[in-house]
Amino acid sequence: MGRDYKFYFRSEELIAEDASRLLAKLGLRGATYFNICDFIEHQLGPWLRSNGKEELTIRLFDASPGENLAFVSFDNGNPILNIDTSVWEEAKIGEPSARYVLAHEIGHVVLHAHYDLAYSADPALKLAPFQQEESAEWQAHTFARHFLVPVETAKSYDAVGSVATKFGVSIEVATSQFNLAHPRRKPDLGAIVCETCGGFVVTRDGKPDRCKGCAAKP
Q1: What would the pLDDT profile of 4-58 be if each residue is shown by its tens digit?
Q2: Which of 1, 11, 193, 213 lies at 20 to 30 Å from 137 by C-alpha?
């Protein structure tokens, strides 16, 4: 999760399909929470090899202040997933932001590993005026959301809080995917979530009032 580069145009719909195919291939379609470190260690590498892609190496390191906590690099065309040790350990126990960091880097590996040119020092490949769908970072962020919270699976849940809890993601990620899963509902921008039932808290005069699900006050 660092410097951005312009990449080939890829829509959110296509990226969501990429994430869905990977989950299905590895027996995770319909799953909610899964151990993302186990996935990287035991499933991602074999999947890459079976699809004729490069060998994957995982390198743990202790990030210095200001250094990226995770990034993809290359050695003779083979992707290296560089991950700060503390992020890796937090992801192992299900910490949402750490899981998201790893999902983001998985997005780079899945979407961009064949094209390490996009990570080169060529100034022409750095960001210039462009559409968001051409941003390598936007693509990886979009993949991470759909990989951790597939829209089809999120349709089974009626509250943002439930999505966040069941899928092990932040409220921000849960809100984004919940809104995609329930397009006929009024979009929830920065939802206030009831700690009692996980439902939406309604507001009055711009202030939290009561949960419309269980009537509890926040």
Answers
A1: 777 778 899 999 999 999 999 889 989 999 999 999 999 998 888 877 666 789 9
A2: 193
Distances (CA, A) of 108 to 53, 65, 114, 160: 13, 23, 10, 27
Range of weakest confidence among 10-19, 79-88, 122-131, 135-144: 122-131
Closest CA to 73 of 63, 52, 58, 89: 58
Are 112 and 39 contained in the same domain?
A: yes
Global pTM?
0.79
Q: Is residue 212 part of a domain?
A: yes
- Closest by CA position to 146, among listed 180, 112, 118: 180
Structural domains in the chain (count): 2
Contact between 24 and 147 under an 8 Å Cβ cutoff? The reply is: no
**Residue 97 CB contacts under 8 Å (≥ 6 apart), including other chains:** 90, 170
pLDDT digits (tens, 9 = 90+) for 139-198: 999 999 999 999 999 999 988 999 999 999 999 999 999 999 998 776 554 455 555 555
Closest CA to 161 of 89, 218, 209: 218
Q: Counting every residue, how long is the chain? A: 218
Please check whether residue 211 is in contact with residue 218, taking contact to mean a CB–CB distance below 8 angstroms: yes
For 13-105, list the strands marked E by DSSP.
Answer: 57-61, 70-75, 78-84
Contacts of 42 (CB under 8 A, 6+ apart): none
